[in-house]
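Sample pair:
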Amino acid sequence: MATKLTPKERMAITRQKMPEREALVRNKDFKEVNIGFHEEIAKLEAERCLHCKDEKCIDGCPVGIEIPKFLDLIAAGDLRGAAENLLSANALPGITGRVCPQEEQCELVCIRGKGKGVSVAIGHLERYIADWARENLDLKQLLAPPSGFRAAVVGSGPAGLTAAGELAKKGHDVTIFEALHEPGGVLVYGIPEFRLPNKIIEAEVNRLRDMGVKIITNVVIGRTFTVKELLQQEGFDAIFIANGAGLPMFLNVPGENFKGVYSANEYLTRVNLMRAYDFPNFDTPIIKGTNVAVFGGGNVAMDSVRTAKRLGAKRAMILYRRSREEMPARIEEVHHAEQEDIEFIMLTAPVRILANEQGWVRGVECLRMELGEPDDSGRRRPLPIKGSEYVIDCDLVISAIGTRANPLLTATTPELKTNKWGYIIADENGATSMPGVYAGGDITRGSATVILAMGDGKKSAASMDKYLREVKKTPTRW
């Protein structure tokens, strides 16, 4: 262990605050909000780990990072050892250290967080080590000898990138097919740069390329190729499907077809992937509202409303039908939004979008709500208050109430069994109803977190490797 501190001495160390940029400066640009730890803060935070005998934090991590060992190496000043430990389990630490909801995973079960305590800042330390490694280490992985097998990965989001890296380490020839013109999936089109800079994603993608992973963009599986064509005509021995759940949902209230209504998917894609925030260097059209209303209370809603503020909105509002306590967004994201002068209008449900004579949005008619008994989600059900209608003036509306499975791939592959919502059915190892075809991430879970998708990618890659070596045994010849 790094030091001989007693548990009492460790308990006396308070959680170190993440340095961040000043709120009313950062809400006008797209530079990253969090600045990051420096070495002394990182060491001090790592010393807070109690080194429990029952290492619940490892069980709380979907990719199985040896968290106590990782923290001990940081506390000892062995940053190289910490980086090697982290990278052995996590293919995308620079990403997960920024966007993984650690407060619902490893930090939730941290013994330091029980009662009135505060958990170790595992996510902030993960980010620190990932950034240090990117600047100080040759991150090329040791690869197994070539297996002769070819694996296709559909989608380059967190599940796809993780699976590709794991398969490449095992010696397989891996090709990623990405529908968009840049790799990264939801990481690059859905998460703003003030939370996850593109340079971080680019570095992780380039590391995969250094491992021999081929990435082909502008290929839509279900149109360019079908799953069966990849297996039967293109010579792939196994496939991992991780094309996400990118079909936007709307409230189906009157007025959603008016000009000035976006889905969060389109809005964030225009800003993040197509660089609308960097006009005129990138000439992507985007409507910049003065008064912007965002429907929803999750992380995508926070990303959308904070983006609108940065694009010049004087009034950027979250409209959410439940109370603050029921919001699914990360605590940190809500906190940052509040700091940045975002307005939260709780217990409010939009019932109609209003427009002027030219068909442009001019407001939202809303209904006040009250909370009843818990529903199937465990949250208290919002109930309308009769006669409480009122209008919120706005000139831009963004619907951020969720996404569902796009049927493009599955419609061309009837052999793939799906559930009633259109998501691919996969077992605990990622195997689908088609031999040699695996799936994970949002296309099996619905909208989930980056780290859960990565866990699916890692687990499925292990299953695919076993299938190739023990079931298929001989690579496809073509």
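Residues 248-402 form a domain with the FAD/NAD(P)-binding domain fold (CATH 3.50.50.60).
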